[in-house]
């Protein structure tokens, strides 16, 4: 962002100022910066999925200001399923209001 602001003329950021990886929409696996926490594939997969789910839920609740029904709808899951995941990761939706 800082690079784009510096290179922009008149305060308007145009697509040509963006880095190639953002313009193409392609990302390398290294861009995700996923720590490998286990040599066991199943355990490592579980940890990565849990980290993703937790981050996803937090961002979803931030966007929807803690509204569980709206968050469930935008995520394409039932309210009950979202509530289950919130309990699983000990996330309180009230803290996002």
UniProtKB/TrEMBL annotation:
Q: Which Gene3D superfamilies does the entry mention? A: Homeodomain-like (1.10.10.60)
Where the record annotates domain DNA binding HTH, the positions are 49-89
- InterPro entries named in the record: Homeodomain-like_sf, HTH_Fis
Q: Which SUPFAM superfamilies match?
A: Homeodomain-like
Q: Give the matching Pfam families.
A: HTH_8 (PF02954)
Query: What is the protein name stated in its UniProt record?
Result: Regulatory protein, Fis family
């Amino acid at each position: 962002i800082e690079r784009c602001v510096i290179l922009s003329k008149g305060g308007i950021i145009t697509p040509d100022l963006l880095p190639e990886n953002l313009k193409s929409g392609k990302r390398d696996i290294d861009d995700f910066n996923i720590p490998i926490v286990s040599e066991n594939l199943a355990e490592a997969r579980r940890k990565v999925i849990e980290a993703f789910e937790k981050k996803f839920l937090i961002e979803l609740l931030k966007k929807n200001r803690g509204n569980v029904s709206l968050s469930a709808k935008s995520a394409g899951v039932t309210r009950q399923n979202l509530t289950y995941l919130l309990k699983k990761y000990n996330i309180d939706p009230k803290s996002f209001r």
